[in-house]
Please model this.
Amino acid sequence: VQLQASGGGLVQAGGSLRLSCTTSGHTLNNYCVGWHRQAPGKEREFVAAIDFGGGSPRYAHDVEGRFTVSRDNAKNTVYLQMNNLKPEDTAVYYCAADPYMVAVVTSIGAELWGPGTQVTVSS
Model:
């Protein structure tokens, strides 16, 4: 089972994008879901996470106030709304899922991963 992240693209600084994370044939409703990103030449880093009930959102310091993580369990989808994007947000964005929040925040041992989606922010 793989997660599918989508919604990336090219946007100007100050613009917005909404990423989606879903999977087919498997429910995410019992999973915490986290977003991570990796820029060229850099380590993968945590961006945001949400628990299986849609509560306890957590954010990296440099995206707090600009990004919002949410989920629609009826649609089996977790979203990352990204506003006021900056060139330094340019990266491949991945989603990860696990029954435990610590796994999706640290990305260590997360049960489900998938290919990322490219986000490019031009200045």
The longest strand covers residues 91-98. Residues 15 and 63 are 14 Å apart (CA to CA). The longest helix spans residues 101-106. The chain has one helix and ten strands.
